[in-house]
Amino acid sequence: MSNTVIKVENLGKQYHLGKVGTGTIANDLKRWWHIARGKEDPYLKIGDVNDRTQKSSNNDVVWAIKDINFEVKQGEVLGIIGKNGAGKSTLLKILSRVTAPTTGDIKVKGRIASLLEVGTGFHPELSGRENIFLNGAILGMTKAEIKTKFDEIVEFSGVERYIDTPVKRYSSGMYVRLAFAVAAHLDSEILILDEVLAVGDAEFQKKCLGKMQDVSRNEGRTVLFVSHNMQAISTLTTRAVFLKNGKMAGEGLSAEMIQLYLEDNIQKELRYNGKILSDKPSITSVCIVTSEPGNVHIHGKPLQIKFTINTPYPIDNSALSFQIVNLRDVSVVHAWTFDSDRPMLRNAGEEEIVCIIPRTRLYMGKYILNVHFARSFGAEKFETLLGICPFEIVMYGMDREYKWVPDTCVYLEESEWVINKRRT
Amino acid sequence: MNNRNEQWDLIIKSKNNWYQINLASIWRYRDLLLLLVRRDFVAVYKQTILGPIWLFIQPLFTSLTFAFIFGKIARISTDGAPPIVFYMAGITLWTYFADCLNKTSNTFIANAGVFGKVYFPRLIIPLSVLVSNLIKLAIQLLIFVIIWLYYFNASNSIHPQWSYMWLIPVLIFMMAGLGLGLGILISSLTTKYRDLTFLIGFGVQLLMYASSVVLPISTMPDKIKTIMLYNPLTSIIESFKFIFIGSGTFDLVWLLYGLCFMTILLALAIIVFNKVEKSFMDTV
Hints:
By secondary structure, chain A is of the alpha/beta class. Chain A has helices spanning 24-36, 88-95, 128-138, 143-157, 172-184, 202-217, 230-236, 254-265, and strands at residues 4-16, 48-49, 61-73, 77-81, 103-108, 112-115, 190-194, 222-226, 239-244, 247-253, 272-273, 282-289, 296-298, 303-311, 319-326, 331-338, 349-357, 365-374, 381-394. In chain A, strand 7, helix 6 (202-217) and strand 8 (222-226) form a beta-alpha-beta unit.
């Protein structure tokens, strides 16, 4: 494949945990001694997988990323997704040569410009004009290049009026606009972006996304893009790499990777089990009664959601509600019950409260529940449960002429069609 | 294998050879160097009334202070030259070295923010310091030359060695090389263990007295004189004084020794710097 512009092979990066400077001089000497005798680095063999939630096993060496392999083709926009600490930033840092990898290598064709932060090297005392030149040069442009693009940059940023004012007088929005404008006009063949779109107001964000699309589609440049914004990933990128605990958990079409990433985020337990508290009311369990086993439910069939609540004392005016949320974090359904509707939890003890949805109209896809339980409407919340009881809606037995395509809508409305002849 | 024939513009490897120093990339970033120099000057004198005039006032005051303290109060031998000319000669060159050393010695720590976000040849930063200070040196030299010309006309205690004048740029070049070499070496050594940074301020001061900036080596016993000459700065400053004033010791052999010293130090420092810049973000 001759049009591969980035080739990452067996990439790994090791970090030492804990404070630098405690006991490291001894380790340094030991390592130096091993390498001096032509032996292998004694610290390269050990090392835990990068998982910040786990207490390390008396081992202060971790692999931030390990065994990363992928290729990027000319003109492709590759998304890199994963949770915080999955190794995305480490990967970008190595790609942009801020730090060197511990193992493996990367081969690149063309000039790389990386944008891990907007406004790197901005000097507060200098004017916008002076900072455009300085920042542009830091990002790898020559003075002549910046000069030819200067007007374009200023126009894009929309801070023309303040271009000769020191940037320390800028509002933070103006600062970011100017900084992004410089970066957006970089002339490199490969552009690396880290979450920089998360700044600025909605209008400017839209402008940035537009510019990004322009860069990849019309100018044929290759872009590597990291974001937590799945909307941006799905609109901008065609392919994505999914990182999990420093390893490649998947590589493929963006839509598929986003699905993998989102599914990975939800809890695996099909039902929620809480504790009985002696001093405070609590939800002891939540479960979904689906038409099929394993929390799989057929569209159109009745769905039951059962809550059991324990209270050590009577509550006068309690309120219970839940939301059904899809994987894009959109709340699709909100249902509630108040004490005024039907008395509940008026005595100490445990009660089961059931909500019945007679015909689920949710479209095929995966959903989770958010549950809110309060003393009274709008008052102190006893409990809020987020992302519990994952379930899936399927369209089995609902054949139609064309295949059902996921993600076309969030729910199906009952509808009737009429054809009226106007002319023959 | 088809892959072998492919042309890659850049290969990021886990292991790099110590001699891989990309001078071409430094040249490609020359505009950045100039813009950084510009920033150093423009940013400092923003929001001052006198603005760039401070560039002249600062070195003038420094020289006057030194001339007053050493010439009028301490009354140390100046080899028969007017004290102010004698001290300014030493201090002008010394200040260049000291400024370069001080500012380059924290290259990594002071620029960690920028270095952590974007790649450009790291050597650009210390090189820009060298150039900024070179401009300051030019201003200081100008002041020195004015005073020197005044005394040259007014008294006959100054005997410039016109035939050696061509050596002045070489002396400045050697000072720059030594300042840069020592500075980036210290900078590279202090990314992980900061201990050395505490010694720099003190060390530079001590070095000044060990470099015959204030005390001419002609006043010293032979034994100490030889030891002092092993310090390459001594012969540079002595030569500078000799060329302008006619006093002091001048020996081409020692100067040549200094040049070799500088070349080796600089080469070593650049190799170490180059190695450290690859992974210092993990330890800084």
